[in-house]
């Protein structure tokens, strides 16, 4: 039994050393051949023999062979299980823990009893955001943490500042997005907007609206009230 354990331990050590050497080869070859490739965060095996996953920029996924001779960009599909493995991986990597959100840099819109919770990153000049906000009028019993995320233009930053500095942020926001009423000028400490931009860069929030639910799941783009209800019903706090 002792001999068997020693043999197994040696085999595992050999496998581990081989995996380290394999990763080193992939990193070396790709770095030398593709100097503009972002820094490789992680190299890991995939379920497909001979294919390795490369993770860069936090949550971007590429694939390569064991020698780094080829680089593949696209989705890896498990045809038997009918699963998009790339999409599942990116969703997991880009999930944002709800309790990690800087809620002090958002204002709230409460509908009904407000028991359900979600967060939204939006730009006041975003047409899709306006469509989303109008659809959200049909959703009740929810607290929405609204993060102003001015990324579309300089005017977005100015409008966001005026909204953030308004006496009733939620009303001014709804008046603009739902009823197309202009925002009055206002001044205050609007440093929260800059922090929102930095948070978005860190978590790769690249478009508006971006929705985050209580279970950390993230949905990019304007979805309808029925879909919002579905996510709210399925989301269980982490």
Q: Give the low-confidence spans.
A: none
In sequence order, what are the helices and strands, one letter per element?
Answer: HEEEEEEHEEHEHHHEEH
Count of DSSP H/I helices = 7
Largest sheet: 5 strands, mixed
Question: How helix-rich are the residues, as a percent range?
Answer: 40-55%
- For CATH, the homologous superfamily of the largest domain is named as Glutaredoxin
Shape: elongated
Calculate Rg over CA atoms: 23 Å
CATH topology of the largest domain: Glutaredoxin
Strand content: 15-25%
Whole-Å distance between the termini? Answer: 43 Å
Structural class: alpha+beta
CATH architecture label name of the largest domain: 3-Layer(aba) Sandwich
Strand arrangement, major sheet: 7-9-8-10-11
Number of β-strand runs? 11
| Average of per-residue pLDDT values | 91
Counted up, domains total 2
CATH class of the largest domain: Alpha Beta
Overview of this protein structure:
It is a single chain. This protein is an alpha+beta fold and 238 residues long. The protein has two domains: 2-94, Roll (Nuclear Transport Factor 2, Chain: A), CATH 3.10.450.70; 98-234, Glutaredoxin, CATH 3.40.30.10. Helices cover 40% and strands 20% of the residues. The protein is built from seven helices and eleven strands. The protein has helices at 2-33, 85-94, 127-136, 154-164, 169-179, 191-202, 225-234, and strands spanning 40-45, 52-56, 60-64, 71-72, 77-78, 83-84, 107-111, 116-122, 142-148, 210-213, 218-220. The strands form three sheets. The protein has a five-stranded mixed β-sheet, with no helix packed on it. Strands 1-2-3-4 form a four-stranded antiparallel β-sheet, with helices on both faces.
